[in-house]
Amino acid sequence: MVSERKISAGAYDLNKFLFGGYETDIITTLYGPGASGKSNLCMLVAVSQARKGNKVIFIDTEGGFSIDRVKQILGNKNGLDETLQNIFLLKPTSFAEQEKSFETLLDYVRKGNISLIIVDSIAMLYRLELGDAIRSETTENIQEVNRKLAGQLRTLNEIARKQNIPVVVTNQVYTQFVRSENQEQNPGLSNDQQKFERKVSMVGGDLLKYWSKCIIELQHHRGRRKIVLRKHRSLPERELHFEIIHEGIRKKGLF
């Protein structure tokens, strides 16, 4: 049996949590609300690979990539210029530009020597484009936007599987309020009597769930942070309470 390969996630406690780091032949999705730590986790794994001399493709759709953050992660170690030279940064500002970024990504992969692909985030520009399509009330436009996102995820999946290149993408969330399960069984309650539960879901949910073999949720509540492993090929659902520090992240007390 071929053993699964992994790369360091860039932090000791996160590597321990994931039993070695991110798997190399799959898409790993990190999702959560703003300021939950998604871009920080992307920066950690990118710097971890780049400082070793490995090439990283970083598609930044949200402006989350920060040279100052790279300096903090490196700490007192030298090699800032060398590290940055190993990160190919693409910064699309529209969904059409994101499509073109994937063409550039494929060119880099064909040339070889790519050790990691990051898309932070896969869904922000898609969400804006989908909003325009919905407002146009044209079914064909909505289907086309969804088809393009599915195509991008399919491309990333093929690269991960065939080239054994780890892919890490981030995703946004949206909140719905739904009736609690007990009240589903008693629909006769009035509106005043009904109680609703807050449900957090990924943008483009089914598409991302289908293509991602590892799904990690990041939570942020009143300054306290938690990582929840929601889906994995070999690990059970589990949690890690953490804090963000200059050098990366570290395990913390209860949520």
The largest sheet, given as strand count, sense and whether it forms a barrel, is: 9 strands, mixed
Taking all residues together, what is the mean pLDDT?
89
CATH architecture: 3-Layer(aba) Sandwich
Summed up, the domain count is 1
Number of strands: 13
CATH topology, by name, is: Rossmann fold
Distance between the termini: 39 Å
For this structure, what is the CATH homologous superfamily?
P-loop containing nucleotide triphosphate hydrolases
Helix content: 25-40%
Describe the global form: globular
SSE sequence, one letter per element = EHEEHEHHEHEHHEEHEHEEEE
Report strand order across the widest sheet: 5-4-6-7-3-10-11-12-13
- Total DSSP helices: 9
CATH C-level class:
Alpha Beta
Approximately what portion of the residues adopt beta-strand conformation?
Answer: 25-35%
Give me the secondary-structure topology.
Elements: E1 6-7, H1 12-17, E2 22-23, E3 27-31, H2 38-50, E4 55-60, H3 67-74, H4 80-85, E5 87-90, H5 95-111, E6 114-120, H6 124-135, H7 139-163, E7 167-171, E8 173-179, H8 181-184, E9 196-202, H9 205-211, E10 212-221, E11 224-231, E12 238-245, E13 248-251
Parallel strand pairs: 3-7, 3-10, 4-5, 4-6, 6-7
Antiparallel strand pairs: 1-2, 8-9, 10-11, 11-12, 12-13
Helix pairs in contact: 2-3, 6-7
Q: What does the model show?
A:
With 255 residues, this protein is α/β, with parallel strands linked by helices. Helices cover 38% and strands 29% of the residues. The chain has a single domain (6-174, 201-251), classed as Rossmann fold (3-Layer(aba) Sandwich), CATH 3.40.50.300. The protein contains nine helices and 13 strands. The strands form three sheets. The protein has a nine-stranded mixed sheet with strand order 5-4-6-7-3-10-11-12-13, with helices on both faces. It has a two-stranded antiparallel sheet with strand order 1-2. It has a two-stranded antiparallel ribbon with strand order 8-9. Strand 12 (238-245) and strand 13 (248-251) form a beta hairpin. Helix 6 packs antiparallel against helix 7. The longest helix has 25 residues, at 139-163. The two termini are 39 Å apart.
